[in-house]
Design brief:
The complex is a heterodimer of chains A (about 350) and B (about 130). Chain A has about 350 residues and is mainly α. In chain A, about 70% of the residues lie in helices and about 5% in strands. Chain A has a domain of about 240 residues: Cytochrome Bc1 Complex, Chain C, CATH 1.20.810.10. The longest helix of chain A has about 35 residues. Chain B has one helix and ten strands, in the order αββββββββββ. In chain B, about 10% of the residues lie in helices and about 40% in strands. Chain B has one domain: Rieske Iron-sulfur Protein. The longest helix of chain B has 15 residues. The chains are: A mainly alpha (about 350), B mainly beta (about 130). At the A-B interface, helix 7, helix 8 and helix 11 of A face strand 2 of B.
Chain lengths: ~350, ~130
């Protein structure tokens, strides 16, 4: 009976092709294998975001009048509401942290080299989308900190030469952050970004499947043994996911995410205001740049600098390999270490100063 | 093909661009009563749809500015300890003439005129 049912499904879905794939997919085992897990953890946390985000949608109301109160209602009146919201917020932060670890592990093991340029490019766009999720979701509780963070963030976008003011207007839905901004950020956060992200994750995973896992250039191919993906690697991956879930549960339960005060557009920016940690390095840099540098406005120079840095980083597969397609290991490792040091130091300074 | 894509994208981009809403320009507002604000203190008030900062410097001296920081659009506040105007977002400071004292703001704050009529404080745009 079971065999007949499987045969029936196989005739219609081509299950044998999937079985074939499961039998032959392997993962290289070497000293850097542990870094392979971070892509999977990012995917797992994105799944947590989807589930908790959908649950929050059952109560959240995306208006200036009701946004803050609906989140407070979730946290104080709905059973386990505080936990669902806390997991959503903590998971968002862990996801971005793990995505950064995944990106730098790809750089330091030189996995961006041919034929994985598109895997790198799609990963960079995905990281940008994750930051977009963070930025748009931050405003939704409509509290004082998120209100001013959005004012600053959209004004940074407005500083982009040429198209900046139009981008800021489209993001805000007008000249200032207000009711139309909340509606737009809600639409972006729950519909536009998820649709793009899910499609791009599928593309990213398809490329990983197509090209296989990259082995660092200093490990000879002949010395690498392989582990079957199904079930050996997958079971290990699931154990790591359980670990991530445990960390998430502990953080969400012991340090529930705060709501703050309701946004008041006619109040001063509160003392100690700062963005989420993943924008702190840029925040602190903007704080340090003087109002004018030579003939340029400091803010414009800062925004242009971040833009150049982001484009240069996205083009890593171009400048990070030689004509033969081999990684320029010293150059890339050096640049990555400088970038990690800058991000770590300025994030810390942005937090304590 | 390109023309077809453009014909789809053009209305979408136009749709996303919010319509310009011209609001009647506000040139003068009543900021409150004289006794509401002690000397060496400040408060944020509504000036049309923008925040303004009213500072009572002494018993008889008043100052008012646009409260929108010229750096990245945050709302500034008056600090009685330093007698300066401060933006909490990026630590910009202005003096009581609206001029930048330190930090990243590129331009001074726009100053408004303040008049006291009876016990009411009136803020108006300068001509």
């Amino acid at each position: 009976m079971t065999a007949k049912a499987i045969q029936w499904l196989d005739d219609r879905l081509g299950l044998s092709a999937i079985r074939e794939l499961m039998d032959h997919k392997t993962v290289p085992v070497h000293s850097a294998t542990r870094w392979y897990y971070f892509g999977g953890i990012t995917l797992f946390l994105f799944g947590i975001q989807m589930v908790t985000g959908i649950l929050l949608l059952f109560y959240y109301r995306p208006t200036v009048a009701e946004g803050f109160d609906s989140v407070r209602f979730i946290m104080t009146r709905v059973e386990f509401g505080w936990l669902i919201r806390s997991i959503h917020s903590w998971s968002a932060n862990l996801l971005i942290f793990v995505a950064f670890v995944h990106m730098f592990s790809v750089v330091l093991t030189h996995a961006y080299r041919p034929p994985r340029e598109l895997t790198w490019a799609s990963g960079i766009v995905l990281l940008g989308l994750m930051l977009g999720f963070g930025f748009s979701g931050y405003l939704l509780p409509w509290n004082q900190i998120s209100y001013f963070a959005t004012k600053v963030g959209t004004d940074v976008a407005a500083g982009t030469p040429g198209i900046g003011p139009s981008i800021a207007r489209i993001l805000r839905g007008g000249e200032d952050v207000g009711a139309p901004t909340l509606t737009r950020f809600f639409a972006l956060h729950v519909m536009v970004l998820p649709l793009i992200t899910v499609g791009l994750i599928a593309f990213h995973i398809l490329l990983v499947q197509k090209n296989g896992m990259s082995t660092p250039p200093w490990i000879a191919a002949s010395r690498v043994r392989h582990l079957k993906f199904f079930p050996n690697f997958l079971l290990r991956e699931v154990m790591v996911w359980y670990g991530a879930l445990a960390v998430l549960g502990v953080l969400a339960a012991i340090f529930p995410w705060e709501l703050g005060e309701k946004a008041d557009p006619f109040a001063s920016a509160p003392k100690g205001i700062r963005p989420e940690w993943y924008f702190l390095a840029q925040f602190y840099t903007l704080k340090l740049i003087p109002s004018h540098v030579w003939i340029f406005e400091g803010e414009l120079l800062g925004v242009a600098g971040f833009g150049v840095l982001a484009v240069g980083w996205a083009l890593l597969p171009v400048w990070g390999v030689n004509r033969a397609g081999e990684a320029r290991t010293r150059l890339v490792t050096g640049v990555a270490i400088v970038l990690i040091a800058y991000l770590a130091a300025f994030t810390l300074l942005g937090y304590i100063k | 093909m390109l023309a077809s894509i453009a014909s789809f994208l053009y209305p979408v981009l136009k749709f996303l661009n919010p319509p310009l809403i011209t609001e009647a320009a506000v040139n003068e507002v009543v900021a409150g009563k004289v006794q509401d604000l002690k000397p060496n203190s400040g408060k944020i008030i509504k000036f049309g749809n923008k925040p303004a900062l009213l500072v009572r410097v002494s018993d008889t001296e008043w100052k008012a500015f646009s409260a929108v920081c010229t750096h990245l659009n945050c709302t500034v506040q008056y600090r009685d300890s330093t007698e300066q105007i401060w933006c909490a977002c990026h630590n910009g400071t202005y003096d009581l003439n609206g001029k930048v004292v330190s930090g990243p703001p590129p331009n001074p704050l726009t100053e408004y005129a303040v008049n006291v009529r009876g016990d009411e404080v009136i803020i108006s745009r300068r001509a």
